[in-house]
Every structure is written in C-alpha cells, then in structure tokens.
Design goal:
Layout lengths: L1 H7 L3 E8 L8 H14 L3 H18 L1 E2 L5 E2 L16 H11 L10 E6 L21 E6 L6 H4 L3 H17 L18 E5 L1
Parallel strand pairs: 1-4, 1-6, 4-5
Antiparallel strand pairs: 2-3
C-alpha cells in the first residue's frame, strides 16, 4: 500500500521487499470458512465435538440481546480481550490482514524474502502477492528460521540483510538484480525503496 501511495504521488519505487509477509486474502470470509473447515476435517471425532462446543461458547460470549431483542456485537476495543483474537502483535496483524482490502495493484516488481516453513493453505509460493503486483516477483527462501528469527537471530538476519544489500547495491550501480545488463538512471529523478 505504501509503494502504491508513493507511485500515485509521482515517485518511482526502485525496490519493494516483503519479509515473510502474506498478502491479504481476496475473499476474507471464504478464507476463514475454508481454513476453519479444513482444521475441523483433520480433527478426531472427540476433538470435533469439543471444537463445536467451544465455538458455541465463544459465539454466546460475543453476542448479547438488548431489551429490543436486537443482536449487537460488543465493541472490540472495550472490555476484555477477545480470547480468539488475543492481544499480541501477531494476532492483531492477522486480524488487520483479514480485514484489509487493497484498492489498487502495485505497478512494479516485488522481492519476497521468506522462511522455508510450509506455506499456509490457500496461498502459493508468492504468498498471494501475484494477485496484487503487476511486475515480476522474485522469491528468496532463508532455511531454518521462523517468522521471528528471520529478523532477530544470527545467521538468518545476516542472510536477510545480504539479500536486501545486494538488491540495493544493484540499484545504485544501475544493474538489474535479475539480469546483468546495466540500466541508465534518469538524472534527478525521485525514487524510493521500501522493506515491509
């Protein structure tokens, strides 16, 4: 979204990188339904029974009926933390991702740097970004790390920084990262780089 905003302001985005970040699902409701259904289908019969009971308890906690018998959802920013959502950053990010609907496609290339963990159901090797990016997508996989350690732990963060450095160096020398042909830079042109 930031890269699209830069482009709409007339700036050229020279490099856009995503670190282990999934695109918002095209249809959040269908995504949630499919995910829950697949989880349910993998359960044993006793787990399915407990799952159904827990879902009904959660639904009962979320809804209340006022004196006019209208169903009203409580304000999620008031009172206790929703036990399904939680209050940690990862849960908040996931909830925001499910509720975000990009208005425009990014007109440029994207570099994805991700872990070698299994890709979530209903996503592809581009983590869903091919739906929102008009240019090419280059993917780098860093083995042995997870969503946190790719940034926080050595040697994974070193591998991450080398990939970013190499892409930025290729831009500063005028060489495309996917080829070896030099590119001419436009003198005095504004450009931006973003790592998300």
């Amino acid at each position: 979204e930031m890269a699209v905003i830069f482009q709409r302001m007339g700036e050229k985005v020279e490099f856009l990188g995503m670190v282990n970040n999934y695109a918002p699902p095209e249809n959040p409701t269908m995504y949630k339904l499919k995910t829950e259904w697949n989880k349910f289908m993998r359960m044993e019969i006793g787990e399915k029974f407990n799952y159904a009971i827990q879902k009904n308890k959660n639904l009962g906690r979320r809804l209340f009926v006022n004196r006019d018998h209208h169903e009203v959802m409580p304000d999620p920013l008031q009172g206790e933390t929703d036990p399904v959502i939680g209050n940690d950053l990862r849960s908040i990010h996931s909830l925001a991702l499910l509720n975000y609907h990009p208005g425009h496609r990014y007109n440029g290339d994207l570099t994805i740097i991700r872990t070698d963990e299994p890709i979530e159901e209903f996503y592809n090797e581009h983590l869903g970004w091919d739906r929102l990016v008009k240019g090419g997508i280059e993917t780098h996989v860093i083995a042995g790390c997870d969503n946190d350690t790719i940034i926080t732990d050595h040697p994974y963060n070193r591998e991450l920084s080398v990939i970013v450095r190499d892409n930025l160096m290729a831009l500063s020398t005028g060489i495309q990262s996917q080829g070896s042909e030099p590119q001419k830079k436009s003198p005095g042109g504004a450009s931006s780089a973003a790592i998300l």
